[in-house]
Design goal:
Tyrosyl-Transfer RNA Synthetase; mainly alpha; 5 strands; Rossmann fold; 2 domains; about 55% helix
């Protein structure tokens, strides 16, 4: 049987966080043997926020190195940079003519980001989900492994794909979100009702994948909890719930097992244990990352080869799309 296709993307909009890792990237490596996988550093999406050019270049390369450090094998997966494959932007124009203003207005990420960057509510921020839909559809992806914040965008992708398929003829596979049961939404350490996000300006809110052990310890010590004082799963203890989630994913335990392990223990002991678990999981990733960043020629080879492979698949779909809508081939 032919392998199913997977597509996912990550923005080079800052340093990767524990949220990106536990909710998305960590799971990608587990799929590489069973699926035909495409993973993309979506630099074009990152432009919806202002990026300092030299930082964007650095973060894009670091993003790629991070995917490799997290265990993605470039022989088994196609790893590439979005702006290297022009079909994404070309398809996005066409699909933006098939996506309604009302649909895009309902996107919660648009609403959240508009509130956060009220001085820069640009057209790209609004049409962001159309470009994302094209990322997915150009590769005929069946599954899209993401954190739960991206579910709404994948539903929109399906709606637009179905519209195209119905208006013309079947062209796109129908993608489904692939969301982990635990870890799909890691919360901010400072405001546990908000998701941990790499563009958060408060450094203490995030664990970055490259944070050294002492920084990780300090951030967990300062993590906002509550005055209940019991390690348990309760709706009015979002900070503790978040720490239980992190520990459970790092240790491969269920949340209930974590609660049992820390029964009768104080928050101080629990926070130290969570920090140690995270440090242990990140250590090999950090070592590998530094090794890769010292070898720019290798990284270049990986993204060039990835772009060539991605381009072939994406072009094929774009050609079909153009033909079906009535564009004359040259
Ligand atoms: P930004 O702050 O720039 O929006 P981000 O941290 O939300 O960035 P993205 O590049 O948008 O990160 O997301 C990459 C992947 O990480 C997506 O699959 C997303 O669902 C997942 N992800 C992001 N934040 C979290 C989180 N807090 N918990 C779990 N998964 C997350
Ligand atoms: N919108 C996503 C990043 C992203 C993506 C994609 C994810 C861009 N294109 C295609 C999955 C599939 C985000 O903000 N996390």
């Amino acid at each position: 049987m032919e392998k199913q296709t997977i597509f996912s993307g990550i923005q080079p909009s800052g340093k990767l966080t524990l949220g990106n890792y536990l909710g998305a990237v960590r799971n990608w490596g587990k799929l590489q043997d069973e699926y035909n996988c495409f993973y993309c550093i979506v630099d074009m999406h990152a432009m919806t926020q202002y990026q300092v050019p030299k930082d964007l270049r650095k973060q894009t390369l670091e993003g790629l190195a991070m995917l490799l450090a997290c265990g993605l094998d470039p022989e088994k997966n196609t790893l590439f940079i979005q702006s290297h494959v022009p079909a994404h932007a070309e398809a996005a124009w066409l699909m933006s003519c098939m996506t309604y203003f009302g649909e895009l207005s309902r996107m919660t990420q648009f609403k959240d980001k508009s509130a956060k960057q009220s001085d820069n509510i640009n057209a790209g921020l609004f049409t962001y989900p159309v470009l994302m839909a094209c990322d997915i559809l150009l590769y005929q992806a069946d599954l899209v492994p993401v954190g739960s914040d991206q579910k709404q965008h994948i539903e929109l992708t399906r709606d637009v794909a179905e519209r195209f398929n119905n208006r013309y003829s079947p062209t796109f596979a129908m993608p489904k979100p692939y969301i982990p049961k635990v870890g799909a939404k890691i919360m901010s350490l400072q405001e546990p009702e908000k998701k941990m996000s790499k563009s958060d300006e408060n450094d203490n809110a995030n664990i970055y994948l490259l944070d050294p052990p002492e920084v990780i310890k300090k951030k967990f010590k300062r993590a906002v909890t509550d005055s209940v004082g019991v390690v348990q799963l309760a709706d009015d203890q979002p900070g503790i719930k978040n720490l239980i989630t992190i520990y459970s994913v790092c240790k491969n335990m269920t949340m209930d097992q974590v609660v049992e392990e820390f029964e009768g223990q104080g928050y101080g002991v629990f926070k130290d244990a969570v920090a140690d678990a995270v440090i242990e999981v990140l250590k090999p990733v950090q070592d590998k990352f530094h090794e890769l960043m010292a070898n720019k020629a290798y990284l270049e080879e990986v993204y060039k080869d990835g772009a060539d492979r991605a381009e072939r698949t994406a072009r094929k779909t774009l050609r079909k799309m153009y033909k079906k809508v009535g564009f004359i081939p040259r």
